[in-house]
């Protein structure tokens, strides 16, 4: 019988189906925790997003998985193997950076082939794999152009092709659409989703854009001050936020502080600090203790006037 791991949401997942695991990971900068006891289980083939405001630790978490930073405590496993002493270039991951990090003196084909040439593969294999990667991102016709001759969206595709050509088990995306204008960003979101569907790789994306995370992800981890506040599907994160921070960070909401004054079989009644009474439908997570201090989140689109 396969071992199982437990997600924050209580879901049991076979160890064999996990691509990335973070077990109580800490990272300190100047004795301040940038990543504080993070636990993550990311499934094979999943589009997983780490979402949060600037400085919350999401990019540091991605860099820890990539190997660009070393954890001060805890364990990182990729495909069941500890990455403690494994350098970045030996990990089965590739990273697409917000800046794209293309070599300006190399053309498109040479940029994509760069990693394969370092591995000293045969020229025929390099040619075939570069051609395949460029076809995936629809850049075959521009293979001879240099980065300065490409638009932002085209540079983005070259960066993706360069990562995909190595056939990584896990693709890491660090704010991959952050440098694009709004229209191109929307277009690239669709292309990223289609690419993930076609390839079946595990994608881990860091973003501060709530809409981007909600539209692209199978699951989302919301980070704040180095800790994970909640992990769940986009609908769980939006409809059932577990903390005031998650409720306020994801979309628009109205937060009412108060205490429980009445318990019913299917609902609880909350008296707010301003004297309003709010009746809340009960779920498995609803507090059920009289006089307990609570916060009620009300989304604007849920309100009806009568």
Describe the structure.
With 306 residues, this protein is an alpha/beta fold. Among the domains are: 4-92 and 168-239, 3-Layer(aba) Sandwich (Rossmann fold); 252-302, OB fold (Dihydrolipoamide Acetyltransferase, E2P), CATH 2.40.50. It is 27% helix and 32% strand. It has eight helices and 16 strands. It has helices at residues 58-66, 108-118, 123-136, 152-164, 182-199, 210-216, 234-239, 244-249, and strands at residues 4-6, 12-14, 18-29, 32-43, 47-51, 73-78, 81-82, 93-96, 170-174, 202-207, 219-224, 227-232, 254-263, 267-272, 277-281, 293-298. The strands form four sheets. Strands 8-9-10-5-11-12 form a six-stranded mixed β-sheet, with helices on both faces. Strands 4-3-6-7 form a four-stranded antiparallel β-sheet, covered by helices on one side. A four-stranded antiparallel β-sheet has the order 15-14-13-16. α2 packs across α3 (123-136), α2 packs parallel to α4 and α3 crosses α4. Residues 1-13 have low confidence and may be disordered.
